[in-house]
Amino acid sequence: MALTGIEIFKFLPKTNCGECGVPTCLAFAMKLAARQVELALCPYVSEEAKATLEEAAAPPIRVVSIGSGEDVLKVGGETVLFRHEKTFVNPPGVAVQLTDTMSEEEVSSRLKSYIDLQYERVGLNLKPDLVAIKSANGDASKMETLVKKAKSAGVKKLILISRKTDVLSAALNHCAEDRPLLYAADKENIDSLGDLAKEKKCPLAVYGENLDQVTTLTEELTKMGLKDLVIDSGARSLKQLFEDQVVIRRSALNNFRPLGFPTITFPCEMTSDPMKEALIAGTLVAKYAGIIVLSDFQGHLLFPLLVERMNIYTDPQRPMATTEGIYEINNPIKESPLIITSNFSLTYFIVSGEVESSRVPCWLLIKDTEGLSVLTGWAAGKFVADAIAPFVKKCGIGEKINHKTLVIPGAAAAISGELEEELPGWNIKIGPREAAYLAPYLKSWTAA
């Protein structure tokens, strides 16, 4: 459970040295409690105090990493039950399942979908995360073949599915360095599989027929020194699975450590209907699943899931923003119009969409307004002349055009005079207030 600033202060050296960048130890403790600084900034905290504070500061649901290096999927780490209380932290991983009973063509098709199905939206790259490889017949050689095929296709984040320790051990000969998730330890194989996960330093999934059994298994594995665990409650009906997800989250937030782990779910085992599978997966995105394993990826079903995930796991207190810079639309040339707007993602996509549909080659400047719209950015001092002018001068657009005419949004007409003063020699034009009128405006545009 999180400590208060006063409770944290008791563990600090109380030297008020200021070497952490904060004047006093009490102020540093308050910032630690608010998660605004890291404990590592204090050079004099004892190892004993550090261990105590790090344990107390750990989230109620452990963060589990799958993968290695920079290509890592993190699940867990959540601290609240509802999104309006605080931002959800780590989006659920979406996986496609391969089995050793599939034909080579089917395996290749699913791997291709995993690689190809990526979508650009509001400046983000939406894509699936994992490939789950299942040994359906217990043949270690076939499992190894699938792992090698997935790795040769560029897959780095894997789930290895088998209840047989020897099968998982054989597969790990080809991917242990990638830290795959091993699925799953149960009441029959807990010792052998726990030893394998510990030896290979891989995260381990736990399968129980109910939450009581899951609790017993996680307690035993924790005693073995395993901390990176993922829970499968065993439910394969939506009603029971939904209930289990809520119970696990509530229990973890109430500091019940045996259930303080992310979950893995299998919509692929709950129905043979792709549409129903997507509906189940959509429910699990909203209700706490850490990993969602699907039977196959189809663009018209995967895309809505990825968008739902993005929406739920976006910080509601921070607007979605597009990267500041120069955007080329419809292959502009040096004589093409130059327009500017804010980096609020909705503004960018509406404006760029209207420009693209106009078929007029155009240069679009996106000014960083910390995700605020044009009017809000103007009111907050983010989309104003003395902020826009330095950006126009330094962004490099002068090398791409042979005129000095800049079109600003009609909603920001008030800054035109100040902008002309800040940009001597530039002609500032006032564009339409609504993006819907951009097409006719650009078609009649002249630099004069």
Task: Write up this protein.
There is one protein chain. The protein has about 450 residues and is α/β, with parallel strands linked by helices. It has 3 domains: about 5-55, Electron transport complex subunit B, putative Fe-S cluster (3-methyladenine DNA Glycosylase II, Chain A, domain 3), CATH 1.10.15; about 65-310, Dihydropteroate synthase-like (TIM Barrel, Alpha-Beta Barrel), CATH 3.20.20.20; about 325-445, 3-Layer(aba) Sandwich (Rossmann fold), CATH 3.40.50.11600. Helices cover about 40% and strands about 15% of the residues. It is built from 16 helices and 17 strands. It has helices spanning about 5-10, 25-35, 45-55, 105-115, 140-150, 165-170, 190-200, 210-225, 240-255, 275-285, 300-310, 345-360, 375-380, 385-395, 415-420, 440-445, and strands spanning about 65-70, 70-75, 95-100, 120, 125, 130-135, 160, 180-185, 205, 230, 265, 290-295, 325-330, 340, 360-365, 405-410, 425-430. The strands form 5 sheets. The protein has an 8-stranded parallel beta sheet, covered by helices on one side. The chain has a 3-stranded mixed beta sheet with strand order 13-15-14, sandwiched between helices. Strands 1-2 form a two-stranded antiparallel ribbon. The longest helix is centred in the middle third of the chain and has 16 residues, at about 240-255. It is globular, with a radius of gyration of 27 Å.
